[in-house]
Amino acid sequence: MDPIESILASVFGFHQFRGLQEQVIRHVFAGGNALVLMPTGGGKSLCYQIPALVRTGTAIVISPLLALMHNQVDVLNQRDIAAVSLDSSQDEQQMRAIEQRVLAGQYKLLYVAPERLLQPGFIQLLRTLHERHGIALFAIDEAHCIAQWGHDFRPEYQRLSILHQCFAQIPRIALTATADLLTQKEILQGLAISEQERFVASFVRPNLAYALSDRPHAYRHLSDFIRKQPKPSGIIYASTRSEVERLYRQLRILGMPALCYHAGMSHNERQSAYRAFMDHDQVIMIATVAFGMGIDKRNLRFVLHHGLPRSLEAYYQETGRAGRDGAFASAHLWFNTHDALLLQQRLGIGQSADNAHHQNRVSTLLHFTVHPECRRVNLLRHLGENSLPCGICDHCRNPPTALDATEAAQKMLSCIYRSGQRFGARHLINIILGIRTPAIGSYGHDRLSTFAIGKDWPPYYWNLLLRQLLAEGFILGNADQPGLALTTRSREILFDRKAFILHIPGDSAVSTATHTPLLQALNAWRASTAHRLNVPENAILEDQSLIELARLKPSAEDELHVISGLGLQQTQRFGAQLLKVIASCASS
Predict the structure, then answer these.
(1) Quick one: pLDDT at residue 353?
(2) pTM above 0.85, yes or no
(3) What is the pLDDT of residue 228?
(4) Which among 284, 323, 325, 328 is positioned nearest to 306, based on CA atoms?
């Protein structure tokens, strides 16, 4: 029997290859190099594990994370494959013992971090191993880390050119779940792999439904979301450690089975959280992007980004951790305009920045959030693949509505300019709606010509407008101070009267958000209440709640409980006032 097919069946329990697996395996077995792009869950690991078992010698696997190495070694050992990692969790005595067994040829796969591989002493160990028993291949896992402008850049990966310099005749196989064309080019050049040795599988995940929406202000929306999941086992990504901690505490208070993971925790704390997540079903991991690379938990039903990811490539890879068992799963992204500004500031992007690569990645991500077409079509196009509409994303289920917003865009751009190009979205929207907050008064912005010129639109529309202006490059985060500023493209709308079409999400509640007198009255009530209590408007009620109130027009207090985001405490405090506003509009 063919040795490759024999190992596939007897060791790994599969009776046929998937996609490009066989083509890659036979190419590497014959001594060829390869760059392999396969989606998360697509079977990348077999592409180097099977050649490692059929070729002479020990395969050296370069992996960026301890958890990833340990997981792979555990899985292989369970299949009676001699595999080991050499890493910082071991003491000096343990490492010396492993090195001696490596030199004795006792392992078929050795996992190391790039930092260790680059040590002169380790290179010498590899030379000795090669002379005694042979090196089967070098596998560079998570190879996108080599790209300087990628989403998981590790400078040590760029020094892996030492592999083809010192071991030119040994096959090199680089593997990743996501890489745009620029990143692919960097990998090929960095590892001296030819263009003809690139293997790119389809990135389509037919069981994964994408949905994007505004991030709610209240934590109760998050617990409501989790309770609605058919099997609440998933990952929630937040951009900072402090936000991870806040979400974790809130969900634990609400009785959710939550775990926590970020780089600020000790190694033992992270390992404990990782093990608990892998060993139990129906748990939610709340984490920064320090968690998840290479995680093989098959039954995750959702991934939720609580804020914008770092790039569209990162988003694709991170969402791909859901539904690896092939069953239906969902990928959710909750964000707001402020997230985009924070992302730009975190990457050092502004009008004076010359970081074109980061600028392009952020712009591409923002464009994805506002583009009206199928989410999967948009996402895969960026990865170089054409796709038919998926039929299951939020845009396919509820297509967005196009609205000519040229005049509104002119008003907002003028407002940004006249207020000094240094204020954020909420302040600008308060100006244009004519809401006299303490900040508006202290800056004298109630005397601007743009004050109250946008009352004909609700706050939700203005938020959408700002986000789309930002995504299409008509405004940008100010490089010198927080806030929004005009760009050279702004004059296309302000002076050249370029048409600006706003795409309004087709969600059933949002699509009915046409600006009615009742919604105007509810917005005015919320603004005055927030001003009186000296709190942000969304601390009173979210836009979504006002939209539902205007649509459903409840007439009694017991009918208020069906309104999303209107809890018992708020009903007791504001219920009578809301019913009065609704009744007065109905009678006028």
Answers:
(1) 43
(2) no
(3) 82
(4) 284
